[in-house]
Structures are given as structure tokens and as C-alpha cells.
Specification:
Blueprint (H helix, E strand, L loop, with lengths): L3 E3 L2 E3 L6 E3 L10 H11 L1 E4 L5 H17 L25 H9 L2 H7 L2 H11 L3 E3 L4 E5 L5 E4 L2 H4 L6 E7 L10 E4 L5 H9 L3 H4 L7 H8 L3 E3 L7 E5 L4 E3 L10 E10 L20 E3 L15 E3 L11
Parallel strand pairs: 3-10
Antiparallel strand pairs: 1-2, 4-11, 5-13, 6-13, 7-12, 8-11, 8-13, 9-10, 9-12, 14-15
Length: 314
């Protein structure tokens, strides 16, 4: 197996340190089994849940937009997503750009896919709604995402929420696949204080070194080679991170995070409404471009000026 890295740290690929995500597709029609497996594992993984054509249409829509600001090399086909250096990033209104990506018609079809909504309705036991804010992620070569749980970032309304990570195209593990920390006896005791925090009020950073964290929890990281149409659904207390994108051809990883809750329950005002405030009006969702341990959300959110232009030291 090729070496795998997360947050710049090489991970062990031994069997007691790294495993494969378990496909739960056989349980899709069994609500009780789905809920029991989610409770036990903290995640559910499905091969081919969403029509590949729906995924690839969204992929092309988003990559076309990144190509406009120089993030995609024009010498290659758009859908190859070969990194182009991002020459125009500092000249564009990133606020407008980010919103155009999040609100794309083809991308909305992925987030609101009927099969995806039905899955969350089975898990939650009623009519669900997706968060109004959506998180399409463009990971350049060398980039990834730190170790965290979603709960402290999303649960001001209700904690009965599930996240779905969706690769927008095939994503081999060495190209930045998501990984889940397998649950073990130490899962809840070690996370108790962390999960009680609010990311905005308490200034959370990433949970820490993925290699040391795995050893502390005495369990394994789980991942796989993802294909277009796959969905990885997980709970608010599930520890996860992304592998670093080490694409040998300089391919950028494109994926989506979307969140779902019962339509009848209160909403987290940060992520819902016609113009969600997120982590502040001076910040724009634009992951990557550096490494700061996510202090004040810099890994994922960029400070912009009144014209929406980037304000950051690269």
C-alpha cells in the first residue's frame, strides 16, 4: 500500500492501525438495523447510493467555476481537476465565488438527492431537511482536513443531526479520502468535555495529531477508495479527518459535506436561513491555502475585505 498521510503525519498502514469502512448497503431497507449500526459504529457507508450521473454533473459544474479563477490547469480536461495554481484568487470576490459554488443547481441536486433524504428520514424517524448552508470542498495537492467531530460546530438547534460526506468523483485514499476513527471503549470518555463545547464561543482547534490520537483511543482509522455515487454518513460525535491529498498527478479532490435534521426541530442559526452568518460576516468558506491548526477557523474559512477579497498571509 502507498504511504498515507494526514495533517502531514505519516500513518501506520498495519492492520491494527488502519482498516476498511464497512459497506452498509444491505441494510438500507431495515430502519432498525440502520439505527443500530449507526449507534454502534458512528457511521454508515454506502456504495453507489446516488446516481453517478448526478454526481458527475455537479463535479463539472463546480470545477468549471474553479477553473475561472485559475485553480484548474487549462492544459488538461476540466474533469481531471489538475491543479492550476490559483493565480486569480486574490483578484476575485471570494464571497460571491463561494456562494455561486454552494448554490449551483447541479450541486443542489446532490445535496437534496431523494435517496439521500430517504436515508436520513430512516435514521431520524421523520421528515428531514438539509441545512441551508452546504460545504463543497476543493482540496489541492498537499491539503487535507484536521481531526474533529462535527457536534461543536453544528448543534445549537438540535444534536439530532447527521453529516454526509460525498465524493464528487472518484477519490482514492491517497488523493484525500475521508477517514473515520473506529469506536472503542474509550470513545465517549475521551470526548466528553470536547463535545460539550461550542466551536465559536470556545475557540476550538483540531483535536490533534491523528497518529497519537488513534493510539490514545486504542483503535483504528477506517477509510477506503471512494467512487462517484458513494456516501459516508456519520454522527455528531464521530471522530474524523481527511487524508492528505498526495495525488501523483496533481489532481485536486472534490467532495461535499451536507447536514440533515428533522424538519420539526430547531435550527442552528449559523447555518440556516436565506443568508446564514456561519462563523462571521467577515469570513468565507474557502478551505486550504495553508496550515494553521484551524485557529479561528483559518484552515476552512478565509477572512475577506468589504469587496470580498482575500485578506491572508500565504
Amino acid at each position: 500500500m502507498k504511504p498515507l498521510y494526514s495533517n502531514g503525519i505519516e500513518l501506520s498502514v498495519d492492520a491494527d492501525a488502519l482498516g476498511e469502512l464497512e459497506d452498509s448497503s444491505a441494510y438500507l431497507e431495515d430502519e432498525a438495523a440502520l439505527r443500530a449500526k449507526m449507534e454502534a459504529q458512528g457511521y454508515l457507508f454506502f456504495r453507489g447510493l446516488i446516481d453517478t450521473a448526478v454526481i458527475l454533473e455537479a463535479r463539472e459544474e463546480i470545477l468549471m467555476k474553479f477553473a475561472i479563477i485559475g485553480e484548474i490547469d487549462p492544459e488538461f480536461p476540466i474533469n481531471d481537476a489538475i491543479y492550476g495554481g490559483g493565480q486569480a484568487i486574490h483578484q476575485v470576490n471570494l464571497r460571491a465565488f463561494s456562494r455561486s459554488v454552494r448554490d449551483g443547481i447541479a450541486y443542489r441536486r446532490v445535496v437534496l438527492d431523494e435517496s439521500l433524504l430517504k436515508l436520513h428520514e430512516k435514521l431520524l424517524g421523520g421528515k428531514v431537511r438539509a441545512f441551508d448552508f452546504r460545504w463543497p470542498r476543493f482540496a489541492r495537492p498537499g491539503e487535507g482536513c484536521g481531526v474533529h467531530c462535527d457536534g461543536p460546530y453544528l448543534t445549537r438547534g438540535t444534536d439530532r443531526i447527521y453529516s454526509s460526506w460525498i465524493p464528487l468523483g472518484d477519490v482514492a485514499r491517497e488523493e484525500g479520502a475521508l477517514m473515520i476513527l473506529e469506536r472503542g471503549p474509550q470513545h465517549h470518555p475521551l470526548l466528553k468535555h470536547y463535545l460539550a463545547k461550542d466551536a465559536d464561543r470556545d475557540g476550538l482547534q483540531w483535536l490533534g495529531n491523528p497518529r497519537e490520537l488513534r493510539q490514545r483511543f486504542d483503535t483504528r482509522w477506517l477509510t477506503t477508495d471512494f467512487r462517484a455515487g458513494d456516501v459516508l454518513c456519520f454522527a455528531m460525535d464521530t471522530v474524523h479527518a481527511a487524508l492528505d491529498n498526495k495525488s501523483p498527478i496533481g489532481r485536486c479532490r472534490l467532495s461535499s459535506d451536507s447536514r440533515y435534521q428533522l424538519a420539526s426541530e430547531p435550527l442552528d442559526e449559523r447555518w440556516n436561513g436565506p443568508d446564514p452568518p456561519a462563523h462571521g460576516r467577515d469570513k468565507v468558506f474557502f478551505p486550504g491555502l495553508g496550515s494553521w491548526n484551524n485557529k479561528d477557523f483559518q484552515d476552512e474559512w478565509k477572512t475577506v475585505d468589504r469587496q470580498g477579497r482575500l485578506v491572508i498571509d500565504r
